[in-house]
Amino acid sequence: MKRVESLAAEPDGLKAYRAQLKQEGRTPNWSTFRDEEPDAYRELREALIRTQHGLCAYCEINIHDTSPSQVEHYLPKSKASRNEPDFDRQLDFRNHLACCMGGTSRTTVRSLSEKRVDGDDYYHQDLAASQSCGDAKKDHEPGNAVIDPRCLQLQHKIVVVRPDGTIHPDKAGCAASGISVDHVRSTIDILKLDCYRLTYARKKWWETLRRKLPRQSWKPALLPHVFLVFLAPNSNGWLERFFSTTRSYLQPAGAEAWLALHSTAQQTINDGL
Ligand SMILES: [Zn+2]
Questions:
Q1: Cβ atoms of 97 and 6 closer than 8 Å
Q2: Does any domain span residue 7?
């Protein structure tokens, strides 16, 4: 999990729909919005995906192009608190994140016949063992248990990915960011970021990085370019998948120092998108 940006403003379609509901005295409802306003729903989802540079807010799988994705409610839409009178969990864009389908949907990007099912980053037949992200969180109140990725700082690495694809709290990063190791661990557990499907996919990505960027090729003069390509959004605004895995792989090359130097600049770039 890494920092994701918040939407700078409410998308026009959602804004218009909420105004219409108010005028008609109707109760906000997420399902109705999705059914009645498919274009506004698509606009919202695409705005979130763009703001998040094409990655699922939780597991960092690529969700731009035609990859399956959905709008996740950070605070579950089924529950509301008496303490949030002005905050509508269902239709308030401040409660929305773009997420993958949590292992419940096949990708449409590549032909399934060309690959093994257990090699699909987006889907696994044994759902109980591979469901993740919003689909694993379900109606769980995040509270102190699931970190809101929008509250993180890019320069703080709170998780570490190992070559076998497993994901763990990063003790030094947690200490630097003031987030407890237990908080990161409970986030990983509840979102099931360590499920078989994601662990396998991260392991495959680590192997890809090893092939593309072998350590013997880490020449000091080339490293800034490597960091730029693999840890910053490209000219279309998209980040490479599994940012935290790449970050862990490139840590010995000095990725943390580079990110610390460039995180402010990157956030400025992000804000301008
Ligand atoms: Zn995900």
A1: no
A2: no
* Structural domain includes residue 62: yes
225, two tokens: 């370019």
State the pairing for strand pair 167-169/159-161.
antiparallel
- 127 CA to middle of ligand 1, Å? 14
Summarised one tens digit per residue, pLDDT across range 69-114 is: 999 999 988 766 666 666 788 999 999 999 999 887 665 444 444 4
146 alpha carbon – ligand 1 mean position (Å):
14
Q: For residue 52, which of 115, 98, 84, 12 has the smallest C-alpha distance?
A: 98
Ligand 1: distance of its center to the CA of 109 in Å?
A: 16
Residue 1 belongs to a domain: no
Into how many domains does the chain fold? Answer: 1
Q: For residue 30, what are the domain limits?
A: 12-271
- Alpha-carbon gap, residue 26 to 35, rounded angstroms: 15
Separation between Cα atoms, residue 240 and residue 174, nearest integer Å: 24
The verdict on residue 2 lying in a domain is: no
User: Whats the size of the chain, residue-wise?
Assistant: 273
Q: Which amino acid is at 211?
A: R
CA distances for 158 relative to 86, 98, 134, 182, angstroms: 32, 20, 20, 11
3-state secondary structure 125-143: CCHHHCCCHHHHHCCCCCC
* Whole-number pLDDT of residue 111: 42
